[in-house]
Each structure stands twice: as C-alpha cells, then as structure tokens.
Amino acid sequence: MTITSFHPPQRTLMGPGPSDVHPRITEALARPTIGHLDPEFIRMMDELKSLIQYAFKTSNRLTLPISAPGSAGMEACFANLVEEGDKVIVCINGVFGGRMKENVIRMGGTAITVESDWGRAVDPKAVEETLNTHPDAKILAFVHAETSTGARSDAKTLCELARKHNCLTIVDTVTSLAGSELEVDEWGIDAIYSGSQKCLSCVPGLSPVSFSEAAIEKIQARKTPVRSWFLDMNLIMGYWGGDGKRAYHHTAPVNQLYALHESLCLLQEEGLENSWERHKLHHQALVAGLAAMGLEMLVPEEERLAQLNAVVIPEGVNDGAVRQQLLAEYNLEIGAGLGAFAGKVWRIGLMGYAANQTNVLNCLSALESALLRQGHTFTPGEAVKAAISIYQ
C-alpha cells in the first residue's frame, strides 16, 4: 500500500482542547527552521520568556515553555519540588486533580487529598482544615480551572491559605491561562503550568511554566536528584536562563516555539484583561442560548469557567449521536464528559481564537438541529435569539 500525504478536514474546535489555531500562528509554523542555539533563536527565546511572564503576570526569572504538552509541565513542577517523604496536600475536584495525586506518589511523596464534588470549586474551608491537621505539609497542589468539569476554584484564597501554613503551591492553569483572571505574583503562586493549545490558540505540544524564588530555593536545596533528567530545572536553567551563551540541554521544537511566540504576541496586542473579558462575553451568550433550549449548566454560575462549559445532557438524548452529527454535518467538535460525567455532560469550549460570535451562533444552531432529531422539546430559533440579545 502506498501512503499519501495526510490532509485533515477543516473543523471548528469547540471541545476541551485543542482550540482553533489562529492563522497567524499556522503561518509562524511555516517560517524557516534555524538552529536552537542560533543567536537569532536565542534572541527570540528571550522575547518568548518575557511574553510568558506577561501572560502569567509574573516577574519570575525561571519562566519558560517546557518542550512537551501541559502534562509534562505538570510533571516538571512535581518532579522538581517533591522529594521522597514530602507531604503534599492535593485538592481533587475532577480528573486533573487526580493526576496531581498520581505525580506526588510517583515522586515518592505522601499525598493527602482534599476531595470536593465534581462540578464544584475546591472548598477552601476543607483545605484549611487539612492544613491545620497536617502542619508538616510542604506543598498545596490544586487545579485552578478543572477541564473535566468546567469548575473554577478560588486560586487567590487557596494560595493565601498555603502561605499562612508555610506551604509552597503548585497550580494547574492549563485551561485558565489567557481565559480567566490569573495573577501569579499578586496571588503568590510558587509553581504554575499551562498548555499552548487552549486559550492561547496555539498548536498542542508546549507547556509554559513559572517558578517563584521560593520554589527555586527548594529545587536547589534538594537532597536527591530530580527524578526526571529531561525536566530537571537545574539543567534547563542553563539553556533558558542567563545572558550570552546557553548550555545545550535538548533540541528545542524550533517551529513550535515560533508559534507560541506569535500566539503570545496576539495576546499582548489584544491585551490580557481584554482577553479575559472576551471569553466572558461569549460564555454569557452561549449560556443564554443553551438555556433557551432548556439545557442546564453543570457548575453553579459563580464557580463556572467561561472557556469550558459543562452542559448537562437532557434525559433521553444520546450523547454520542449528537456529537457525531455535529462532527459529520457541521464539522463542529464538542467534547464528551470524563470520568463520572461520561455520557452525562457535554464540554463546550470557547477558547482563544474559537471564542467568537460566529462560533457561538453556529454551535447553538447546530445543537438545535441535533436535539430536534433526538426528540428534545423546545422552541426552534430561540437559542440564537437569546445569544444575539446578549451581544446587542
């Protein structure tokens, strides 16, 4: 069999990620590849570091993109900060909090879990009680924006509690970066990781991370080597840090880094706070349209993410049939539920370049068509009208 070139279909990506990639970013990917130690590439690296600092709202000197997806950013934080026997309090309110716990265990730490209902924010009172019960805890880890449920936790309050109890914080912002308010320095976050493929509208495969001075001190004071050679910040600092000549660590994904640079230039042009507000506006229009179809949101309004909308599937509606129809007839992707919510919710993403009026109205119209075929009762046309009323 002769295999020919792969040409993917043109989709509208409104699932939990990846999101639609901005045309300027796909153009950046096609720029000439140069060496990863080329002086011009190193100049671009310095700009990229500054742009990531802007997105995170931090002046942390150890701020860089890990050359792998957000899951590697997560592992980088835990591998560098957790040593054998360290007690780590892990907040679990969805799938990705559970992955944090798994990382603690694999690094030889002791995971103390604070369980919250899926679809709800992490409960600060339960966290405080656990911190009081475990005064020897070294780290508090939690997910700011739980991608599996669309719940947003109060990162500022949780970081305040951690500082009060002399704990460092590890925070997952894979879905929140550039889509929700996020203030690394002001909130006192010590280690943070995200992904390129969500609200940054970039291609998958990179993970922006940042470490505070307190986190760097803990890394440098380790009694044992970091368990991952590739993710050891002591080594990576030689490539991403300092002036002049860089120490070779790995061959960076040159063109992907061009793409991330371009995506962050777009963010800077729009303005970080404007990006947060744009995501809120399109979320409000989407929710109004969904309500007009009689659909309910999983997460209470005050705890909801704007960029990841968990919608309760009505009784009698076939989850897979609806998603398949949207993909086959409208080239529109929405996400299925994960874990306990598999078959019970849809996850509709409004991330980055995909968070726009055209996508919201097309999604509502397509969903109306699919639900009518499933026998769901509502007044056709009202969803789009409800969304337009928000925009007007």
Automatic annotation (TrEMBL):
A single BP term in Gene Ontology: glycine biosynthetic process, by transamination of glyoxylate
The superkingdom of the source organism is Bacteria
Q: Does the keyword Transferase apply?
A: yes
N6-(pyridoxal phosphate)lysine (modified residue): where?
Answer: 198
Q: Mind telling me which InterPro entries this protein's record contains? A: Aminotrans_V_dom, Aminotrans_V_PyrdxlP_BS, PyrdxlP-dep_Trfase, PyrdxlP-dep_Trfase_major, PyrdxlP-dep_Trfase_small, SP_NH2Trfase/AEP_transaminase
| Region Disordered: start-end pairs | 1-22
The UniProt keywords, alphabetically, are: Aminotransferase, Pyridoxal phosphate, Transferase
A Pfam cross-reference name: Aminotran_5
The cofactors it requires, by name, are: pyridoxal 5'-phosphate
Gene Ontology molecular function: alanine-glyoxylate transaminase activity; L-serine-pyruvate transaminase activity
What are the binding positions for substrate in this chain? 347
Sequence intervals crossing the membrane: none
Positions of the Aminotransferase class V domain: 33-338
Q: Which family does the record assign?
A: Belongs to the class-V pyridoxal-phosphate-dependent aminotransferase family.
Q: What PANTHER family does this protein's entry cite? A: ALANINE--GLYOXYLATE AMINOTRANSFERASE, AMINOTRANSFERASE CLASS V
The molecule here is called: Alanine--glyoxylate aminotransferase
Q: Which organism is it from?
A: Endozoicomonas elysicola
Upper taxonomic classification of the species? Bacteria, Pseudomonadati, Pseudomonadota, Gammaproteobacteria, Oceanospirillales
